[in-house]
Design goal:
The structure is a single chain. Helices cover 82% and strands 0% of the residues. It is an all-alpha fold. Helix 3 packs across helix 11 (239-267) and helix 9 (183-220) runs parallel beside helix 10.
């Protein structure tokens, strides 16, 4: 192949795309930082200018100082650990139950039709509506938080798994049958690869929902964790400390979302949607 062919052939466009993505990355980061800076500046000015009383909304600088101070307290990290323990256990239970039931129900037309109305009835029920039941059953222990977290996260994963199983190519499934693959083998080699992108989307959504319910349960029920510390700070008049804890929960949410996106990309590195994100 001549040098002209090499310069005019296929590799050049992909190199151009790679260069564009490299140039675009710093701009994206700068825009993100600019957005954060603008938000903090607005937060700082609103109470300083008297638009909102500083007693109810302290300046951002005071809240950040309180947050940094919390980072040095053992009690803060104990509360973080309690919240993350409830989040992790509830999420794992929800994923395990949703994956099992999702593949069982999705693999049977009869079960899908028989459970459709039940799923559509139970799914919209807000998890916070179960707080009285959770308190009656478990009191203010971690089990109450787990009940709410599991219920909320379960539906996020189950619905995605059902969609994924329904998206299986019937030609591929019938071909697997023709080659003598049993039900479990077809689920492993045909159904699971098709449903995996849906499953990972459900897990990412469930992780965020699980954190919201963990904080909510601690805030309302009084289970150990950051939510309870927020309530105690509010009732004790430590408004800057309260906002600092709220800011901490937001930072945890960002970290969880980033971690889940990283796991999703690594797990689905073979999938076209992830490859297109890298190339574009």
């Amino acid at each position: 192949m001549s040098s002209n062919a090499m310069t005019s052939g296929g590799p050049v466009p992909s190199v151009g795309r790679d260069r564009r993505s490299v140039r675009r990355l710093p701009l994206k980061q700068l825009l993100g930082l600019a957005g954060i800076a603008g938000f903090l500046a607005t937060w700082e000015l609103v109470p300083r200018l008297g638009i909102i009383d500083e007693r109810y909304l302290p300046p951002a600088s005071e809240v950040i100082v309180a947050l940094v101070r919390d980072f040095g307290l053992t009690a803060f990290w104990i509360s973080v650990g309690e919240t993350m323990t409830a989040w992790f256990l509830g999420l794992v239970i929800a994923i395990a139950l949703a994956v099992l039931l999702g593949f069982v129900i999705g693999s049977s037309d009869f079960l899908r039709k028989a459970t459709n109305s039940t799923v559509e009835f139970l799914r919209p029920i807000p998890s916070v509506a179960l707080i009285p039941l959770a308190v009656l059953l478990f009191g203010v222990k971690i089990e109450s938080s787990l009940m709410l977290i599991t219920y909320a996260a379960f539906w996020q994963v189950l619905i995605q798994v059902l969609y994924g199983v329904a998206d299986v190519d019937m030609v591929a499934n019938n071909t697997a049958k023709t080659y003598g693959l049993g039900r479990m083998a077809r689920i492993r080699y045909v159904v699971f690869p098709t449903a995996l992108p849906y499953l990972m989307t459900g897990v990412r959504l469930a992780a965020t929902v699980a954190l919201v319910l963990a904080i909510t349960a601690e805030l309302v029920i009084g289970s150990p964790g950051l939510g309870r510390e927020i309530a105690l700070a509010q009732s004790g008049g430590a408004i800057s400390g309260m906002y600092a804890l709220v800011l901490a929960t937001g930072l945890i949410g960002v970290l969880i979302n980033g971690l889940m996106r990283f796991i999703e990309k690594k797990t689905l590195s073979w999938h076209s949607s992830v490859r297109s994100e890298v190339i574009v």
